[in-house]
Amino acid sequence: MRNDDVRALYDRTMREQARPDGPGVRVERDGPLVRRVGGPDDWNGVVWSSPDLDAEGADAAIAAQIGHCAALGLPEFEWKLYAHDRPADLGDRLRAAGFVPEPPETLLVAPAELLTGPFTLPEGVTLHPVTDAAGAELMALAHERAFGTDGSRLLHQVVKRLAEAPEDVVALVVLADGEPVSSARMELYPGTDFAGLWGGGTVAEWRGKGIYRALVTYRARIAAERGYRYLQVDASAMSAPILARLGFTALGTTTPYVYRPGR
Known about the structure:
alpha+beta, Aminopeptidase, 7 helices, 12 strands, 30% strand, GNAT family N-acetyltransferase, GNAT_dom
């Protein structure tokens, strides 16, 4: 896998030529930017900026996105900044305009076929595809327990996707003696080489027992069967070392810059 070539492919097909990531979401080209726009419970933000963006253009583009956020009454708006984006001080300019950086993530990619081997789960632990609202509630509960965050937004997005575009998402929950202890999903992007792994997390007492690996392997098998060449993850500092051991390669970093009106 030639890292520069894969990153260029990712930039072109997943960012510049981004597709809606859920029902009711649209993709808009706004001058030198590409953004996804949906409702208040959807992810709204910039996914790509032109490599020719200069300082003057960046300031104008940032101001335009703040105005866009205000006009739609969105509770927050994200600019997904990659380390190789230009201009080099774009992060500083976003901060000066009121965007707040969240912890950086590592952009990781692996050939899907590489990760389709066997896996085992501990005794009493079972992996279940999520196909309805009841399963999505278990998935959101596992997410809350693993990350200590509110899972209501995830629940809304998964239920909506299962109802309106189930062929483009793989949602999973892991139960231990009937209790949800881990969950994850995979977003499929038809017409591209990439399938995205999202939200993988396990409650603390069940970590280190092979559950996370099983969730990756299960999704890799489906991606490979459906013809996707690569798995892509925006990995947290906790997940990145695990994924690297599984065979993922780092292509760079990405930092979410979030704008929240009135804060």
